[in-house]
Design a protein that fits this description.
Number of strands: 4
Strand content: 5-15%
Order of helices and strands: HEHEHEHHEHHHHHH
Radius of gyration: 19 Å
Shape: globular
Number of domains: 1
Largest sheet: 4 strands, parallel
Helix content: 40-55%
């Protein structure tokens, strides 16, 4: 995947320069997606701000984020790794929402992601920079496994056309820490440490990608398991389609559904 890494690196740099930007800002979580994207950003030669933003972060995940940031700074002179602890601001927000009775656990989990987005844009606009997204194709355009206006709120999406398995391989090619590659993926938004697989009905990314391929090509499942996976994929996708379609806009002349 050497050519792919170079192609994405060139694309990021070309886009940033054409937009008149001088830096790239990317949140790093200790996961494979953000590790790959931050490494690709570093390879552009542009100033790259890799930002760890713990919110009640599990120690092992924050440690991976910190170690990846150190690895970036060791290997690229244009990288600046910063840690901005957002636990206290989130705690205050949570207390306020609970006080007013708005206690959705899912809402609060998504609010962690949205708080990080606000932080990324504050730093980007203070650094003449772009916020670089870390979503891959199966998450962003298959099952919509991201937070609307959270990690989905970005300026560019370098790996949005890559499947998760391709991102893992690209990580190996780029020399990303092996522990990051082998650690079960998680969005890090829950105190109980649930993984992506836990939240995706027990489906691995390999099975999700196969189901996505079947759905897009209309190929019949080869066996009962693929059929069940396809059903589960479509069920998850249906719940998240609102994230992947344009915001509905009222058009004059609408008089209700007949």
């Amino acid at each position: 995947m050497g050519n792919l890494a170079q192609d994405i690196t060139t694309w990021i740099g070309d886009y940033a320069r054409s937009a008149g930007m001088t830096s790239l800002v990317v949140g790093i979580s200790g996961g494979i997606d953000s590790s790959v994207v931050s490494t690709l950003c570093a390879r552009t030669g542009l100033k790259t701000i890799a930002l760890s933003m713990p919110i009640r972060q599990r120690p092992e995940l924050h440690d991976l984020s910190r170690r990846h940031g150190q690895w970036l700074e060791k290997n690229f002179t244009n990288v600046e790794h910063r840690t901005v602890n957002l636990t206290q601001p989130f705690d205050e927000f949570e207390r306020s929402m609970i006080l007013h009775g708005f206690t959705s656990d899912l809402g609060l989990a998504n609010s962690r992601s949205r708080l990080r987005m606000v932080c990324l844009y504050q730093i980007a606009q203070s650094s003449q920079g772009l916020v670089v997204g870390t979503g891959n194709r199966v998450e962003d355009f298959g099952v919509g496994f991201y937070t609307k206006y959270g990690d989905g709120g970005v300026d560019i999406s370098p790996i949005g056309d890559l499947m998760k398995t391709e991102v893992w391989q690209l990580g190996r090619d780029l020399g990303v820490l092996e522990e990051i590659i082998t650690t079960p993926p998680t969005d890090g938004l829950w105190d109980d440490g649930r993984t992506d697989q836990d939240q995706l009905g027990g489906l691995t990314y390999e099975r999700l990608e196969r189901a996505m391929h079947l759905d897009e090509t209309e190929i019949k499942p080869a066996n009962d398991q693929e059929g069940l996976d396809l059903y589960q994929y479509r069920k998850i996708r249906a719940r998240s389609l609102h994230k992947m379609t344009p915001i509905p806009v009222f058009k004059k002349g609408y008089h209700g559904v007949v």
